[in-house]
Amino acid sequence: MNVSTDESAAASFLGRNQFLIYRLFSLSGLVPVGGFLAVHLLTNASILGGAESFQGRVDLIHSLGALLVPVEIALIFLPILFHATVGFMIIAGGLPNVGSYPYAGNIRYTLQRATGMIAFAFIVWHLIHLHWLGAPVRGNALPGFDPHHASSTLAVAMGSMVMNLLYAIGMLSAVYHFANGLWSLGITWGLWTSPAAMRRANWVSVVVGAVLAAAGLGSLIGVRRVDVEAARAMEGRREEMRRMLEGEVPLPSARMMETAVEPRAVESPRTGT
Amino acid sequence: MIAPNHAADSAPAADEGREIRVRILRQDAPGQESYWERHAVPYEPNMNVISVLQRIAAGARSADGRPVAPVTWDCNCLEEVCGSCTMLINGRTRMACSALVDRLLEEQPEEIELRPMSKFPVVRDLVVDRRRLFRGLERVKAWVPVDDSYDHGPGPRISPEEQEDAYPLSTCMSCGCCLEACPQYTKIEPVRREGETGEAFAERRQGAFDRGFVGAHAVSQAMLFNAHPTGKMIADERLEALTSAGGIQMCGNAQNCVAVCPKAIPLTRSIARAGRAATVWAIKRLFDR
Ligand code: HEM
Ligand code: SF4
Ligand code: SF4
Ligand code: FES
Questions:
Q1: pLDDT value at B270 more than 80
Q2: Residues A182-195: pLDDT tens digits?
Q3: Which of A23, A132, A221, A246 is the most buried (most CB within 10 A)?
């Protein structure tokens, strides 16, 4: 944060609560934002197991129904917005100097900031490109994503090589930022204090980063392998099933029952008393 | 570094007439424009940057022979213990007294570049005002709170393990290298306003210092005194300071401080320990209120 010689009321509020705000910022990078990133990338990687397995995961998420939007807002969007706002304030207050001091720790510090900003730009683009939030912005210019036709709409949206490159850069930035952030977070909270413990903790970051990067790149490969026509057919069948189960369309068995069995008596046993 | 080097006493002929070129970023007074000035001094074996500066000041002429005001700098002990001679030498913060010219020329043969520290207001040439550094130590009460002349008897015993842990931290010489290299420690240079009294200015300046990052040196000293059996008595006050504006939370874990500290003080260990102590302290305070 920039320090001016005169204190405004806002600066004074931020100053008094600086420790709390920065610790909440640090925590938010792990839960819920980091947790979400991990779940998101691992879920996406299920597309490597075929369009049907991916559709199953997407359906699981969308089984939250009307709860999904408030959950998304409270546990994903607001925390990211909070983390990013404080993150940009921190970036503005620092003065990177890798040119004069090209040490490993300093390069990581600088990359942490660079990848945070790239991740932010990418997240905004990603929402415009695929999320319902971005639908009014993208209009009909971009194909978008339909959760009931997950693999086929994704395969169409991710059709170009440029798009794949864009996603690879954005995703790898977020993964680096999260993995390196874990290491840094452990120092912030005092989980690892000695240089030896920091070196060991570094391996945790490397492993987490490698797994998530593999999952993210894997999903990009998985999407490219999707056969759009076959996926559409499969999604159509599942869509039909879902609508039947939700009662929008009568079940085939129920239709048979209607013809075979007389409608039940109108009065229930209780109404007689 | 004081021991005579007999091999070098019989100066090799190759050094005869060799010159060391030096480029200095000068500034005549606080708030004035800075400017580069070139100097040249005859090479002597085993020179350090202070001895080069002494020749430059004695000559008081720039490389092109123009008479100039002698260059000013700070130094005292000449053996890397007082911490006063910090400057940017070839772009990197270090102590002028222990920066050996032969090494610097290996690093960059054409010229030695000298600049004042960039995180503190320049007083003149290579002299800077490091008031904020010392204010940082005051903020965290980097002392043992014994303030009378009574005989309190022998102090508590400190185990050899604790001594070993504490000793490196106690070697801090307030040189400010850790602050100069820290990307999170940015310059604060308030300027006295027209009509502002000296007292009002000093107060405003102190307020600005107290909102800025306290710095790795102060975090480490807070940990040193919080580990001391008597110093511990005001451990909470130090943690209060470390969790207020400009406290430990400002550190971004770039770890430059530990890389440049001339005394090789384990600053990042102190920072992480302070982070841990602050975590515990903040939780405790949440429930004790
Ligand atoms: C969206 C834009 C984002 C920006 C601008 C941003 C910015 C930052 C910055 C500047 C830091 C360094 C803080 C410091 O060390 O003092 C940081 C730390 C961190 N970020 Fe982000 N970030 C963003 C998104 C994310 C995302 C998407 C995640 C999770 C995947 C994340 C997780 C973390 C973690 C775990 C830390 C470590 C906190 C600590 O050192 O205590 N950030 N972020
Ligand atoms: S911690 Fe090291 S670099 Fe910082 S002031 Fe002390 S001796 Fe100098
Ligand atoms: S670890 Fe913290 S105090 Fe040390 S240089 Fe980095 S940001 Fe500054
Ligand atoms: S003169 Fe004392 S440290 Fe250099």
A1: yes
A2: 999 999 999 999 99
A3: A23
Q: How would you write chain A as a 3-class SS string?
A: CCCCCCCCHHHHHHHHCHHHHHHHHHHHHHCCHHHHHHHHHHHHHHHHHCHHHHHHHHHHHHCCHHHHHHHHHHHHHHHHHHHHHHHHHHHHHCCCCCCCCCCHHHHHHHHHHHHHHHHHHHHHHHHHHHCHHHHHHHCCCCCCCCHHHHHHHHHHHCCCHHHHHHHHHHHHHHHHHHHHHHHHHHHHCCCCCCHHHHHHHHHHHHHHHHHHHHHHHHHHHHHHCCCHHHHHHHHHHHHHHHHHHCCCCCCHHHHHHHHHCCCCCCCCHHHHC
Please give the span between the terminal C-alpha atoms of chain B, in angstroms, as a whole number: 56
> What are the domain boundaries of chain A?
9-226
Q: Is the peptide bond before A32 cis (omega within 30 degrees of 0)?
A: yes
**With the C-alpha atoms ordered B203, B204, B206, B211, is the resulting torsion angle positive or negative?**
positive
List every span in chain B annotated with CATH 3.10.20.30: 13-124
Domain B130-288 belongs to what architecture?
Answer: Orthogonal Bundle (1.10)
Alpha carbon distance B80, B258 (integer Å): 17
Q: Which CATH class is domain A9-226?
A: mainly alpha
Measured from the alpha carbon of residue B99, the closest ligand is 4
Beta strands B92-95; B122-124: pairing state: unpaired
- Contact list in A for residue B268 (CB cut-off 8 A) is 187, 195, 198
CATH 1.10.1060.10 residue ranges of chain B are 130-288
Kindly identify which residue of chain B lies nearest to residue A197, measuring between CA atoms. B269
The class (CATH top level) of B13-124 is alpha beta
Cβ of B84 closer than 6 Å to ligand 4, yes or no, is: yes
> Looking at this predicted complex, what is its ipTM?
0.92
Facing residue for A195 by CB, picked from B204, B247, B269:
B269
Q: For chain B, which residues lie within 8 Å of any Cβ of chain A, measuring from their own Cβ?
A: 91-92, 181, 183-184, 186, 188, 190, 204-205, 207-208, 211-212, 243-256, 259-260, 266, 268-269, 271-280, 282
Give the tens place of pLDDT for each residue, B59-88: 999 999 999 999 999 999 999 999 999 999
Q: Is A202 exposed, middle or buried (0-12, 13-18, 19+ CB in 10 A)?
A: middle
Contacts across the A-B interface (CB distance below 8 Å): 126
Q: What is the least distance, in Å, from the CA of B158 to any CA of chain A?
A: 21
Tell me the β-bridge partners of B48.
B100
User: Which pTM was predicted?
Assistant: 0.91
Query: Is residue B218 a contact partner of residue B140, using CB atoms and an 8 Å limit?
Result: yes
